[in-house]
Every structure is written in C-alpha cells, then in structure tokens.
Design goal:
Blueprint: E1 4-8, H1 13-22, E2 27-32, H2 43-46, E3 51-55, H3 61-67, E4 73-76, H4 83-88, H5 90-110, E5 115-119, E6 128-132, H6 149-168, E7 171-177, E8 180-181, H7 190-199, E9 204-207, E10 213-215, E11 217-218, H8 219-230, E12 238-242, E13 248-250, H9 251-262, E14 267-270, E15 279-282, H10 285-291, H11 299-313
Parallel strand pairs: 1-2, 1-4, 2-3, 4-5, 5-7, 6-15, 7-12, 8-11, 9-14, 10-15
Antiparallel strand pairs: 10-13
Helix pairs in contact: 1-8, 3-5, 5-6, 7-9, 7-11, 9-11
C-alpha cells in the first residue's frame, strides 16, 4: 500500500500540480479551505480514488492533526498570498501563515510524520533581490507598510520549520519559489492577470513604468524541484531558492511578449498603487549542486502553455 502524502493548500495552484505529480507514488490528502479553488479545474484529481479531499482551515488545530493521521510526509503550501490580501487582510495573513504553520508542524510531530516541506517565498528578500543566494540576509520593508506582512509571516515559518526539524528530528526543508506561473493559477500574479485580460480583449495593465525585473518559473519546474528534494537527505535542514534565472525580463517586456504570443492585445501603463519590487531574480546554484535541479521550461514555451489554458478554460 502506498504511503500517505498530505498537501495543505492542496486545492490551490501549486498544490494541485504537486498532487498531479505525486499521485503515482502516494495516496494524496488535499487539505484546503478552498478560498482559491484550482481543484475545480482538475476533475481528474477530484475524481481520483487515490486522492482524498478534506475541507479545513489550518487555524483549526484538531482538523490539521486529523488530516495528518498516518501520513508519511507533508508539503505545507497553505497560506494567504496575493498583494491585495496583504493590504486588505493583514491580520488574517499573519495568523494563517504563522499560526497555521505552527499548527501543521505540531501536528506533524504528534503524528510522527517523517518529511515536512514548507513553502516560503522569494518575498523574504525584500525590494532588491538580484541573483540572491540563500545566505543573503532577509530584508523586510517598514512595519508601517502592510506590503510586508506576507514576507515576515513566511520568514517566521522558515525559522519554525527548521527549528522543529532540529529539535524533533523532523526531516524538514523550506522552499523559496521565485515568481511561479502556469495553468490553474487562480490567484493574483502578473502572468495570470495579464492572461485574463488578454482573453477578455482588455488591455494589459502594467504598473508604473514597468521597469521592475522578475525571473519567471513554470510550475512544472517547481514541482520537479520538490520531487528532487523529497527523499534526498542532502535537502534535510536546508532552504532552497527555486526559480529560473534565465527567464528574466522587465514587466513591460513580459506584457509585450504575451501580446505577441497571443497574437493581439494592447498594453497600458497605470499608476503604481503598492510598494514596488525593483528586482527579484534567484541564484539557484545550491539547488543545482545538491539536488541536480535545472529548469527545463523556457519562458516562451511556458507562456504559450499558460495562455492556451486560460483561453480554453476562461477562469
């Protein structure tokens, strides 16, 4: 019989792709409050006999503990994300991302789970993160700006995850994804936002002058990185940047590239309403050296794949 893998936030964008990948090796439990429901676009998962779906909140300690009963491993993706949420739900963001992570870790220890992978974020590097390594000091913005509640909450989760690993003998790893995109992205993100507007025939909106730089990582490359670290002892107690440094361009360049790939569309520039992130690109040498990770999906291929999905599904 297969071991059980629990994915918190398993009904979301990354969670459904992880489930899709790992279902051949594990019985999967998807634990999610379904605030962002990507599972609705993956009937092959929701109807699979190998996948159990549990509707629950990571702030509910007893529900989290019950979901981990008998589990071999946990991939903890559950979180409140999205820039608008940082401003509109700052307290909820802190609660879910910090207390929810402690609840998952406590449950993992109590249930004697052997493997725990925590999804953090590249946001912990702050406004200027050019080719940053995992040893770079995390940089938050001012406490007066709600923009930074997410990064602080995720960094707290990183500390908790690695300390639980050391104290309780839990094989723990944290992952810092850099600008992940792809099919089934129901939440916010430049690529998903741009894709929705393109298929509706609306101009893409670029904030400010569009000079901010990102390196974009297709969700399938992120999933492969998690696979490479899952049973790899070299990953225990470690933190990894996961992204695609080669897929690097400005937001304005991204917008025009997506218009060209779509075959039509316009780009408009609108006033910046949130604190900008000037540059965010990863150094992935550690993941390459210890895991053998190398991104395989180029930006043009990934954007075509993503646009095709949005055109077909129109979420």
């Amino acid at each position: 019989m297969k071991d059980i893998l629990v994915i918190t936030g398993g009904g979301g964008f990354c969670g459904t792709h992880l489930a899709e990948h790992f279902v051949s090796r594990f019985r999967i439990r998807l634990f999610d409050a379904f605030a962002r429901n990507s599972l609705q676009f993956a009937p092959h998962l929701s109807q699979s006999p190998e996948i159990e779906i549990i509707s629950g909140d990571v702030l509910d300690r007893s529900a989290v503990r019950a979901s981990l009963e008998g589990a071999y491993g946990v991939i903890h993706c559950a979180a409140i994300a999205g820039v608008s949420n940082y401003y509109n739900q700052p307290i909820e963001t802190l609660r879910v991302n910090i207390i929810g992570t402690f609840n998952a870790l406590d449950a993992a220890v109590d249930a004697r789970v052997r493997r725990f992978i925590h999804f953090s974020t590249s946001e912990i590097y702050g406004r200027n993160a050019k080719a940053v390594t995992e040893t770079a000091a995390p940089t938050s913005g001012p406490v007066s700006d709600r923009r930074w509640v997410y990064s602080v909450s995720k960094l707290s989760g990183e500390h908790a995850t690695l300390r639980y690993g050391e104290v309780y003998g839990l094989n723990a790893t944290t992952v810092r994804p850099f600008n992940v995109y792809g099919p089934r992205q129901t939440g916010e993100g430049a690529i998903s936002n741009f894709a929705r507007r393109l298929i509706r025939g609306e101009p893409i909106e670029v904030y400010g002058d569009g000079s901010d730089i990102r390196a974009w990582c297709h969700v399938k490359d992120l999933v492969m990185a998690v696979d490479l670290m899952f049973d790899n002892e070299a990953a225990f107690g470690m933190t990894f940047n996961i992204g695609n440094p080669a897929a690097r361009l400005t937001t304005l360049e991204l917008a025009h590239m997506m218009v060209a790939l779509h075959g039509s569309g316009d780009v408009s520039q609108v006033q910046q309403s949130h604190s900008p992130i000037d540059v965010r690109t990863p150094d992935i040498h550690q993941a390459t050296a210890l895991l053998g990770f190398a991104p395989k999906i180029g930006l043009s291929e990934g954007l075509k794949n993503t646009l095709e999905w949005f055109q077909k599904v129109r979420p």
